Amino acid sequence: MGSLDVVKLPPLMQRTTGRGELMVALIDGPVAMDHPDLVGQKIREVGSTFGGACSRASSVACMHGTFVAGILSAKRGSVAPAICPGCTLLVRPIFPETALADGEMPSATPDDLASAIIESIDVGCRVVNLSAAVAQPAAKGVGRLTEALGYAAKRDVVVVAAAGNQGTVGSSVITGHPWVIPVAGSDLGGKPTQESNLGRSIGQNGLLAPAENITSLGTNGQPHTSGGTSAAAPFVTGTIALLWSEFPTVSASAIKLAITGTNRSARRAVAPPLLDAWAAYSALSVVTSGRKLS
């Protein structure tokens, strides 16, 4: 069973590639815009000091951003999952293409991340994908990041965030925010991976999505296989983009309710349920036919 099948995405993907007016913000590293499976796709850059296109294809930031972009916006039929290529991808880098130590992942300050969220919302995104590690948790920056997440809620913008890969139980300013959908990693059997962070807020408000052996776009002309919650988050983001493309008049709250389930307040486990894209589609079909979710 492939990663898309685990979360029942194929029947939804067969219905739509997404609407171009539905904009998804990728707050991550820059993207190799010249990759053959991204050329001609609906991709726009959002203001940043780093620029949306890679200047160093070998940088960790470029490889990370391109990998996640492939999961969302690569051409259908490519090696990548290519969940919602019909939607417009807004690339808002927050990672510089600097050299890092082996195994080190790029990170951003809470203040940088807050600015990226606000800028993306102000240009019209409906869904934000965060696969970023947050460094330097200064009180001022954390406060502004909390305000930015509240701004997303006020503007009816759904925020999807990777839970992290430290194998800990707990939450962060991002995954603990009630408006955010935190995404923990699962294996292809739908069980949480050992590396994925879990916690009360993640279990109550979040979802599991595939985080092992995900193949997407590399920056050297070859496919790249990786994992972790950074790879899991765009499965949820892409599902939301397809759902909103199929049901453009529903609210962000209705989208969140359909995809995360109606009994979140009753959840007690630190691990969330597995994403079920087709069940979410069916739930929204009920809503738009005049009946309410219960």
Please name the CATH topology.
Answer: Rossmann fold
Number of beta-strand segments:
11
The helix fraction, in percent, is: 25-40%
CATH class membership: Alpha Beta
pLDDT < 50 stretches: none
Computed over alpha carbons, the radius of gyration is: 17 Å
The CATH architecture name reads: 3-Layer(aba) Sandwich
How much strand content do the residues show? Answer: 15-25%
Question: SSE order in H/E notation?
Answer: HHEEHEEHEEHEEHEEEHHH
- How far is the first residue's CA from the last residue's CA? 31 Å
Description:
This protein is globular. It has a seven-stranded parallel beta sheet, with helices on both faces. A two-stranded parallel ribbon has the order 4-6. The chain has a single domain, classed as Rossmann fold. Helix 6 links the parallel strand 8 and strand 9. The chain is α/β, with parallel strands linked by helices and 294 residues long. The mean pLDDT is 90.
Describe the secondary-structure layout.
Elements: H1 3-6, H2 10-15, E1 23-28, E2 43-45, H3 60-73, E3 88-93, E4 107-108, H4 110-122, E5 127-130, E6 133-134, H5 139-154, E7 158-162, E8 180-186, H6 200-205, E9 207-210, E10 214-217, E11 223-226, H7 229-246, H8 252-260, H9 277-288
Parallel strand pairs: 1-3, 1-5, 2-3, 4-6, 5-7, 7-8, 8-9
Antiparallel strand pairs: 10-11
